[in-house]
Known about the structure:
By secondary structure, the protein is α/β, with parallel strands linked by helices. Helix content is about 35%, strand content about 20%. Strands 3-2-1-4-5-6-7 form a seven-stranded mixed β-sheet, covered by helices on one side. The protein is globular, with a radius of gyration of 16 Å. The structure holds 5-O-phosphono-beta-D-ribofuranosylamine.
Amino acid sequence: MRTAVLVSGGGTNLQALIDREAQGTLGKAELVGVISNNRGVYALERAKKAGIPAFVISPADFASRDDFHKALIAKLEELEAELIVLAGCLLTIPPEMIRRWPNRIINIHPALIPAFSGKGCYGIHVHEKALARGVKVSGATVHIVNENLDEGPILLQKAVEVHENDTPETLQRRIMEEAEWVILPEAVKMISEGQLQP
Ligand code: GRF
């Protein structure tokens, strides 16, 4: 299953996918391309080191948001993507892209949706909110991307204990290591083998 990965930053979730493919444990998924909406991010280096075609498609390079969306979709068509994985991607996915790949765009969210999800809940802010609320357990969620932010069908979740002395950074790191980097590749593997339907 031709799998394209959309990134915006460090690419640790992309790296987890790369490592699983190298170990032969990503099922029938084949990483065919990485697209970043930001230049110079380390995720692009990770792709290059793994020999995966890497592209920057940045809104700043287009006269309108619509032109940017068209270019992004055109690149995904060129890659003949069958599955699109948002891995640390901070883009809002346009409805036309969701309609083109129904139930084939998945996202990793660093909390147990519906907790700490939706507007303003991304990256480190998710963990700031979780600690401010005083939850004893957090974790990560892989879900189908639909037109409502973080509200698509949930595919996999994994819980992670919150420690007394956690900071947003230590909690984020533990959730990435113990949850995100486990369930995202697992979801990709299962979808590629037809084992996971929303
Ligand atoms: C992480 O907090 C992840 O949960 C979220 O984006 C952040 C960076 O991910 N999806 P990555 O290291 O770029 O994969």
